[in-house]
Design a protein that fits this description.
Largest sheet: 5 strands, mixed
Structural class: alpha+beta
Strand content: 35-45%
Strand order of the largest sheet: 1-2-3-4-5
CATH architecture: 3-Layer(aba) Sandwich
CATH class: Alpha Beta
Helix content: 25-40%
Order of helices and strands: EEEEHEHH
Shape: globular
Distance between the termini: 29 Å
Number of helices: 3
Radius of gyration: 12 Å
Amino acid sequence: MDIKQFDDGKKGKFYIEIDGILEAKMIYTYAGKDKIIIDHTEVGDKLRGQSVGYKLVKAAVDFSRINNIKVIPLCPFAAAVFKKKHDDYKDVLS
């Protein structure tokens, strides 16, 4: 399962396509140059139960660490993941 990323400097997404069909996505928006807001996470039925939502959040965390960016998880799912994995992700939490 390959997580792809689109980023235009204002907004972006981490996503998974299978056979050209978007099956999962996590959308974010920049809040200045050093923060992103996770707005929405969505996983289709085909990938449910495979921890795909967690993997999308992890991709955002990895991206944030590499780029020295903080994360504001407004999406309820992402916020729950950040709460559950607080010790692992607190370094990127805004």
